[in-house]
Amino acid sequence: LCLAAHASAGLLYVADSGGSGNQDKVWTFDSSTGALISNNVFTDPALVTLLQAQPLADGTILVVDQGLGTSNPGGVYVYSASGTRLRTLVGATADANNFRPGTVVGSSFLFGIGAGTMAGTIGSVPLAGGVLSTFATLPSGTTATSSPWGVAVASDGTYLMSNSVSASSSTANARVQRFSATGTFVGDVVVSNSTT
Q1: pLDDT truncated to tens, each residue of the chain (196 aa)?
Q2: Burial per residue of 30-49, b for 16 or more beta-carbon CB atoms within 10 angstroms, e otherwise
Q3: In a 10 Å sphere around its CB, with 0-12 CB exposed, 13-18 middle and 19+ buried, how is residue 187 labelled?
């Protein structure tokens, strides 16, 4: 199960990437009691590594599929509540693939991009569909061994991004970094060495 869960209308939506041959699906829980409502809101055999299922204001569900290599490259999609894929916000290309969870900000979705020529950036795409753009880029020195994983809005209106690190790099640091509302790097909030 994905650690990023999103609540709407009394329901908590949780993405389940399935693992080991299981099909990716979306679960719902009662947001007050934690009771399971459905362990299969919908499935889509085209999804490979489902990382995020977030209800949108119009009743649709935004889905982030990390993908898995060139045969199943992933994307950012919008589904109906019954599980019909309505549109692709971002499909994998040589510029952007290996998508990571993010956050809805106004009429856009901000999310991490882990591979392609845009690797090491926070991408932005309009929820109605449109052109993918770069919202922010990891500061110099962190892109070689780290990858933007999650994006969230802080209470002060800035954006926080977590980085995962390459397990093979003994000098890599996991970080939580702060960016301004315009995507300018502000500073590190947390820096963890390879042992803490």
Answers
A1: 344 555 566 888 888 876 655 667 888 899 889 899 988 888 787 788 888 888 998 989 999 998 776 667 789 999 998 889 999 999 888 888 888 888 898 899 999 888 888 888 889 999 998 899 998 887 765 544 457 777 888 888 877 777 764 444 444 557 788 888 888 888 778 777 655 5
A2: ebeeeeeeeeebbbbeebbb
A3: exposed
pTM score, whole prediction: 0.81
Distance (Å, whole) CA 97 – CA 102: 14
Amino acid making up residue 100: R
Q: Exposed, middle or buried by CB within 10 Å (0-12, 13-18, 19+), for 150?
A: buried
124 φ/ψ angles, rounded to the nearest 5 degrees: -135, 135
**Rounded alpha-carbon distances, angstroms, from residue 121 to 62, 151, 194:** 20, 11, 22
User: Which tokens is 136 given?
Assistant: 């922010």
138 by Cβ neighbours in 10 Å (0-12 / 13-18 / 19+) ranks as buried
